[in-house]
Amino acid sequence: DVQLVESGGGSGQAGGSLRLSCEASPNNWSCMAWFRQGPGTEREGIAVVNRGGTAYYDDSVKGRFTISQDSAQKTVYLTMNNLKPEDTAMYYCAAVALCVGFPTVERQYNYWGQGTQVTVS
């Protein structure tokens, strides 16, 4: 099993920036993603990165958020710029051992972090 530990998040102002981190142990993954879930909404995939470093973004965050990984492929980051109040949500990282393309559906991932709250005002 892969354990995912998230850090970062918290409160930010509109137009500001925050960064989330997700450490995978062991780093046996082929795709990692960030999902978010706002109040009364379903969990949605917003950014996916594969082991080769290629990324996919949902239109809602494209151009503002960046998903990246460290050289050891152990930690995946979500750098969030130009934050908007509608970015307020619980953010989760997710991993899967085998992936095709850029999965963005919750059931396509086996492993999940504990979640971290992001609040933008």
Radius of gyration: 13 Å
What overall form do the CA principal axes indicate?
globular
User: What is the averaged pLDDT score?
Assistant: 96
User: What is the N-to-C succession of helices and strands?
Assistant: EEEEEEEEEEE
Low-confidence stretches: none
Kindly, what is the distance between the CA atoms of the first and last residues, rounded to a whole number of angstroms? 37 Å
* Estimated structural class: mainly beta
Helix run count? 0
User: How many β-strands, per DSSP?
Assistant: 11
Strand content: over 45%
Helix fraction, binned, reads: under 10%
Major β-sheet annotation: 7 strands, mixed
Compact overview of the structure:
With 121 residues, the chain is mainly beta. It has strands spanning 3-8, 10-12, 18-25, 31-37, 44-50, 55-57, 65-69, 75-80, 89-96, 111-112, 116-120.
